[in-house]
Amino acid sequence: MSEAPRFSLVIPAYNEARWLPPLLDTVDRAREACSHGAAAVEVIVGDNASTDRTAEIARARGCRVAHVETRTIAAARNGGARIARGEILMFVDADSLVHPGTFDAVDRALASGRVVGGASGVTSERWSAGIVATWAFMLPMVWLTGMDTGVVFCRREDFVAVGGYDERRRFAEDVMFLLALRRLGRRRGQRLTRLRRVKAVTSTRKFDDHGDWHYFTGVLMLPLASVLRPRSTARRVARYWYEPDR
User: Fold this and answer.
1) Number of folded domains in the chain?
2) Could you tell me the sign of the dihedral formed by the alpha carbons of 172, 20, 216, 221, in that order?
3) Banded model confidence at residue 1, pLDDT cuts 50, 70, 90
4) Checking DSSP bridges between strand 88-91 and strand 7-13, what pairing results, if any?
5) Domain extent for 36
6) What is the CATH classification number for the domain harbouring 144?
7) Model pTM?
């Protein structure tokens, strides 16, 4: 049996046949740039009951595929993590692009012993007034909490210790995961980190589909709406995260 990889990159995916190849192109470049060698990185696609060629494309590109029937993003991430062999787990959305230096940056951060995990951060594939305003609104929370998005990473044993992603959540499961990881790190004198110099590029397809100001007119209202109008909120969550036109 081949030696276990050091890194396992998990990509949750539902009908991502269009977006997966560009991401995997950047992952290949990052693997080649990894100081441990390309073989130190395995790529896993958590195929969340796709009806397109997502799984076929993933296999053709050398990825391992975890078939996950439960239709939540959290379940797709956890499904990929369950078959992962690497000691470092990393997660990235299928519509992102990763920086060539990602794997070495994650390796250095965790090797310090002061970090429990973190994220690479992101930059946008395009900008507009609405997108800039959304970024500006989010940045203070990112600075205050130390939590970010992009390529999220931690040690596999710490992922297990916090129970992975909460599959009961249809949204904000990534925030809750990082909060749990931060609590674990605090007990050991460790912190979350933002890598900053290896930011992923994130797609603006949600802005393209819902408008550049939709975060303020819709997404910010979801926590309160989920309490006041749970049924209608569930439908909105499904349309936004789980039933896109793709």
Assistant:
1) 1
2) negative
3) very low
4) parallel
5) 7-206
6) 3.90.550.10
7) 0.91
